[in-house]
Each structure stands twice: as structure tokens, then as C-alpha cells.
Amino acid sequence: MEVVLQDSFERTPGTTDKEPPAEVIAIKVGLAIPWNKIRLLRRWLKASNVSLACEERMRHVSKRIVGDNIQGELAPFLFTLTSGGEELWVAPIVFIPNLIQKVTQLLDENHRLTWHNGVIPENEVGLKLGGDKGGGTFKAKFQIVNVAAPNSVQNTCVFCCFVAGDSFANLNRYKEQCIKSNEITYRQYTLIVFLSGDYKFLSKFYGLSGASGAHPCPICLIANAEMATPLIERGHAPPRTLDGIEEQYLFYLVSGSVRKQAQTMHQGIPELLPYCISGCKDPHMLEDHATEWVRLTHVGFGLLGEQGAESIHAKFNSLGRAYTAIPDRVERLKYIMKEHLVSIAPDMVAAIPPPKKRKKSLDDT
Fold it and tell me: How far apart are CA 7 and CA 14, in angstroms?
């Protein structure tokens, strides 16, 4: 008897019955199998009377998910030399040019949006932006907060990836995309965009001098020397404002744009777009700003977790090994990005069978 994998996912409007099942594509992207291995797998399964959808139909569905909303090129990036100093080299970059279209597409295809039992106002949809460097590439990503597991790797969409570090100059590569994220509107909902990441990323994104600066906190204007003093003795420092950042930036330009002088400034150098600050793992943050964050948002720091951002590095590395035979660096990165975008499509995520809970043995008790 011949066994044919059946289509069990909910079809989107405009699709036909000739499209392949989501399980087949989910297996391909989930196991990082290239197309030539799919052909080999089809021959093995055919010998056991198991039929897979043809490759042309599978590629058609993948193309429908990704569309033409992906571009790649070789661009100049700043690299730090081991001997000291910096040099400008050409490196591949792949990005989604229309970020608004991608966010709207994922919201439309996700039929299981949740407002977490009233924690998120019913007229709002949250969008968490972030970035992290790992596996030799920097990845800018976003996550939709109105899902059951907002920090999962299946909910982490990379919209810009380049083979370079996350320096001030390199981060400007996706500055325009972040600016456009503030222009996103979705039906009758208000889109709340905020930034999340480690302290190093937040400092570079906001143009701060980092931990060595005179005022290293991205939220308030506390001096570095005052951080060792308990909060009950010194009180809260004045908040950091966008007007203050602009004022200090103009003063920095008038003073000759001396990088070392930026460490003594109150506001830092806003070389990138400022956003509402989400938090940072630091004793000062826990003492001065953690309670305020929880009271303001009514959620804990679990929302700011980086599990998905960290796990996406391993996912990209796994996909990279599957496409090492592609000589062109830009095309190789584009294939990796396309496979990633297919893997996070709600139809593909729904096709992944949930793991079975392991039964506890006597040794576990």
C-alpha cells in the first residue's frame, strides 16, 4: 500500500490543493536539508512506497512564503585588526528591504495571537527589536510579543544579517529599517516597538560610551562613581531624555567630535536611532530600574529574554553547513536567510509535532 503524506495545516487564502504538505517543508528546514538531499530522500522513501511532493511544488510554496522581499549584496564594513586599528573590508549582507510588509505578513498568518490574559492592552500589539553577534555574523531580529512563546526561536525573525561585527559604523547598516518600524500600523491595533538586548548592544545602539563612560546607564544620568553608593543614600538620578541626547550630540560636534571626550558627556553620542529602553542586566539596573519596569509594564523580565536570539545563531550555523557548496558568499547567505524565513512561517511552525514528555523513572524520584 502506498502512503502519501497528507496536508494537515490550515491553508491561507489563494492556495490550491496541489500545494505540498507543510510537514515536508517543515522537515526540510527543520533538519537543514538542502534540495539535493531531498531528492535522495525522495528516492529512499519511494522504495518504501512513501511519496513526497515534487520539488517544483515545494519550491513554489517556499517562494510564496519568502516572496521577493529579500536582497543581498557586498558592502563595506569596518573590521578590527588583531594587531590593533581598523580596516574597511567588503563583506556580504542580506536583508529584508520592506520590514513593514514582513511584520504585517507574520501578523496576518498567525491566527493564534494572544494578549496574555489582559497583560497587554487589547488595542496594542508588541514588537521587540534586537540584535546579537554570533557564529561570525551579526543578526538583527524582531519578535512578536502577542504569541504564546514570544522568546522562542520559532518566533525570532532575522531581518538583517551581515558577516561583520556590531560596531557603531556597522550597526548603521540597518538603521533605516529600524526607523521604518515606527511607521508600522496593523489594522485597528497600536504597534508598540521597543528594544531589547545585552548591555554592549544597547550602548552601541544608543551611542553611549559603554561601561567606561562617566554616565554608563542607558536609562538615567547616574555617574559611574555613584553606582557603588546604595540607592537609599543617593536617590534616583535624572532620567535620560531624547532632548538631552540631541543637545549633547550638538555639543560633541561643536567640540570637534573627539571620541575620548564622549566618555565625559551626560548623554552619549546618538549615532543610531533612540528607542524606549527595555532593560539591561546590571546591578544598577536591578536596584534602580527593575521595579519601575515591572510596575510600568506589568510583566517580568522574562519578556526581555534572549533565548531566541541566542538559539538563532546555532540555527544559522546548521543551515550554513548545508549550503557550504555555494561558492558565492552573498548567494549562500541569501539561501540561509530564505530557509530561515520559511522555518518561522506560522504554517511551518504549526506542522512541527510537539515533543513527547519523557516519563519519569524511579531514578528521577
Answer: 16
